Amino acid sequence: MAAFVVTVLFLLVALLAPVLTALTGWGPITPDGKAIDPDTGNFPIGSLGGISLTHLLGVEPGTGYDLFARIVYGLRTSLVVGFASAVLSTVVGVVAGLAAGYSGGWVDSVLSRAMDVMLAFPQLLFIIALTPVIQSALQTNSHGGTDENLRLLVLVLNIAVFAWAYTARLVRGQVLSLREREFVDAARIMSAGRRHILFRQLLPNLWAPVLISFALAVPQNITTEAALSYLGVGVIPPNPDWGSLLSDASQFFLQDPMYLFVPGVLLLFLVLALNLLGDGVRDALDPRAGRN
């Protein structure tokens, strides 16, 4: 329940980002030249990274951007990519797992080998290699770069492409067991079609493992997105993103440790809350998997 409450708070902050930043009066890319001191290399004025009533979490060194606004909008980016890629990979994985487990034969062999291949790929390395290539081929704005929404779409697709096999393998194993059950035999005897058996008989009995898989995929995808942005193949600066914030903050850690500490701790709490929430969902939906 504590993880659920923390997760809901993060979701509300992301949804209310325009309202919260309007209350503070600072946008994610609105610099405050008065909050940084040019005589010290444009570092924040004051202690703890410039934290004050004007800037609740301080400002970025060098730019003067309000850190609270950038974290709030960066949270939206992380959650959008994490949830969208989890939804896409779950849908593809469920369809592939259903087809492989119920059909058997050569269909099962082909899809199972495809799952093995995808699970064998070093996911992060291939996403790092593919993302800039795809984005370079999709130059859409007047500056010869990639539109930000399209860039996020590429991130979502790349993450989902390498993540669907985990759900597919889980669903396939469940379907192999369920297809021999009496209710499936009864549906066949009553001349039910394959689509009816798959989506009206088998799928309703799979919602628990599918929901568990989805709940555990979201924090993993958020971490992947942050790692990609940290390595420079995610969101384009100055657009806010937690991974890029951590990347920039690592250069100023000795001079302004709060710049690294704040987004780092928030990312830790977000991923931890989502992981604990996924564990709670698993324990609630599968009591037989109780821990000693």
From TrEMBL:
Subcellular localization: Cell membrane
Gene3D superfamilies linked to this entry: MetI-like
Annotated Pfam families: BPD_transp_1
Entry keywords, A to Z: Cell membrane, Membrane, Transmembrane, Transmembrane helix, Transport
InterPro entries given in the database record: BP-dependent_transpt_permease, MetI-like, MetI-like_sf
Coiled coil segments of this chain: none
Domain ABC transmembrane type-1 per the UniProt entry, residue ranges: 75-278
Transmembrane segments: 79-105, 117-138, 150-171, 258-278
Main subcellular location: membrane
Superkingdom of the source species: Bacteria
Topology in membrane: Multi-pass membrane protein
PROSITE patterns: ABC_TM1 (PS50928)
Similarity field: Belongs to the binding-protein-dependent transport system permease family.
Name by which UniProt lists this protein: ABC transporter permease
